[in-house]
Amino acid sequence: MTTHWTANWGQFYGFTKDSPPWPLLMRAAALASRGGQALDLGAGAGRDTRYLLEQGFQVTAVDSEPRSVTLLAALPQDHLQVVQSSFEDFPFAFAIYDLISAQFALPFMPKERFATVFGRLKAALAPGGDLVVAHWRGWPAEAPQEAAEVHRQLTSDERFETLVEHLDAEFVLHVFRRR
Ligand SMILES: C[S@@+](CC[C@H](N)C(=O)[O-])C[C@H]1O[C@@H](n2cnc3c(N)ncnc32)[C@H](O)[C@@H]1O
């Protein structure tokens, strides 16, 4: 059951399907020298999933949208597990991911579920693993969460070291490393 705020992502998938990966993810993947297990939350049309596969990660790509799952099914499947699920229902494993990427996705979670799910997400990162998060500042206005607030919950968490921070009028971007 979809409990989160949702939108018609068709146009976004059309724009991004053949796009290069989000630049911050490339930077984080370069920092994460060991490769290993990656989790792409809100994988959409798969631009970042594809890049992570190309970088040699074993990738779990999660999205609740059936159209996303269809597009992800067109990627090479050998090192990919596609999971159609909301973040709220996804069974996060404990401390196994070397890289978690959540690009333009986390603020869509419902406010009342956010703390619990965010706690599971953070615990899913292996010690020394990296979390890459980006979102538009204040857009879409109807989204349940404000990106800056979501990111504040990481910058204020002493278990996470901020490796990269970029804040401007349009974007809020971070790479965090779990201590
Ligand atoms: C703006 S798109 C970003 C897609 C991709 N990360 C990118 O940057 O190209 C947001 C994606 O997150 C997914 N999404 C949003 N909220 C979600 C939730 N609570 N659970 C699972 N997927 C969610 C949407 O279905 C959509 O594919």
Kindly, what is the distance between the CA atoms of the first and last residues, rounded to a whole number of angstroms? Answer: 35 Å
Ligand set: S-adenosylmethionine
If classified by CATH, what would the architecture be?
3-Layer(aba) Sandwich
| The CATH C-level class name | Alpha Beta
The CATH superfamily bears the name Vaccinia Virus protein VP39
Structural class: alpha/beta
Order of helices and strands: HHEHEHEEHEHEE
Question: Which term fits the overall shape?
Answer: globular
What is the CATH topology assignment?
Answer: Rossmann fold
- Proportion of residues in β-strands: 25-35%
DSSP helix fraction: 25-40%
Task: Describe the largest sheet.
Answer: 7 strands, mixed
Give me the side-by-side strand order of the main sheet: 3-2-1-4-5-7-6
How many H/I helical runs? 6
